[in-house]
Amino acid sequence: MAVLVSVGSGKGGTGKSMLATNLAVLFAKEGWNTCLVDLDVGGADAHVMFGVFKPDKTLSHFLGGEARSLYKVMQRLDAFHGLYLIPGTGETLKTANMPYQTKMKLLRHLRSLEAQIVFLDVGAGASLHVLDFFMASSIQIGVATPDPTSILDFYRFLKLAAIRKVLSAFLSHEEVSRMLAREDFQEMEAIFGMAERLKPGSGEVARRALDGFRPTLVFNKVQQGGFSGRRKLQHIVKRFLGVELPELGEIPWDPLVEESIGSYIPVVEYAPGSGASKALEKIARRLRTEIAALQG
Ligand SMILES: Nc1ncnc2c1ncn2[C@@H]1O[C@H](COP(=O)(O)OP(=O)(O)O)[C@@H](O)[C@H]1O
Ligand SMILES: [Mg+2]
What confidence tens digit (pLDDT) does each residue in 34-78 have? Predict the structure, then answer.
């Protein structure tokens, strides 16, 4: 089974696609059988980052049932170490309102892909699709930039993702689920407490739902001497969500990133010696260690 690694942030423009595409290239370069999936429904653009402008087939063909398997919509990028790409879909009413069963089917197919690692670029926003895709993986990478609005957005995103995960531990028709979905919680402990009061034993079920919640942070577009709220962010995540938020790494603001995107070549290939590329390589190495630890 493939290891799923999701990249999310809540906010657009933080660098999710930049991170996901570059990590995918670095893993493929190391010889890993790697697949990158653009799950940014509505803002799909990962293919453009590789100079693929009009993919023959996209996720839409799979979601719409025209393609029965993900292999039919996957394309091998020979110029990028044989990385496999599943291009995203433009937003249509069908994809925006993707039924729960379709989403589950997609996740099932992603998990059974014959790849060692599958990167999910989950896209912006905090819609249920985004939250579910983010939480479906075994490693969740959150991307934030140092500005205070991005940090606040990122915290909200993590909180909603955690709540969504807890709620999905209960059947949607259950009283516990309905009651919890109605409330706005400030911290996870309050959810566990309320679940327990609604139905003895549910507190533990809720708590267990978060066992696989291991978000890590990548700080992007970091400028020397600039504002950095990362300690504060880690502190509030620990205090309110009850989980650590270890840092996978930071990437400096680097003009070569923009230049590389304009040249349709991920920066790790476009400018391997650049500050951003070195930082990305370090992040890839740490991620390999994380995966090794996960696989015991
Ligand atoms: N480290 C960086 N340094 C400079 N520009 C960056 C960096 N990371 C991302 N960018 C720029 O930010 C923009 C948004 O990046 P993108 O990966 O598309 O964000 P997202 O997928 O989160 O919406 C891109 O135009 C990219 O050039
Ligand atoms: Mg993007």
Answer: 999 999 877 889 999 999 999 999 998 998 889 999 999 999 999
CB of 251 closer than 6 A to ligand 1?
A: yes
Give the global pTM. Answer: 0.95
Ligand 1 neighbourhood includes 164 CB (under 6 angstroms): no
The answer, yes or no, to whether any atom of ligand 1 lies below 6 A from the CB of 132, is: no
Kind and range of the H or E element at 207?
helix 202-209
* Tokens encoding 263: 């040249």
Which DSSP symbol is given to 241? I
Q: Which of 18, 119, 141, 278 to mutate to test the pocket of ligand 1 (most atoms within 8 A of CB)?
A: 18
User: What residue ranges define each of the domains in the chain, with the CATH number in brackets?
Assistant: 3-294 (3.40.50.300)
- Whole-angstrom Cα distance, residue 15 to residue 250? 12
Ligand nearest to the Cα of 44, by number: 2
Q: How far apart are CA 220 and CA 40, in angstroms?
A: 19
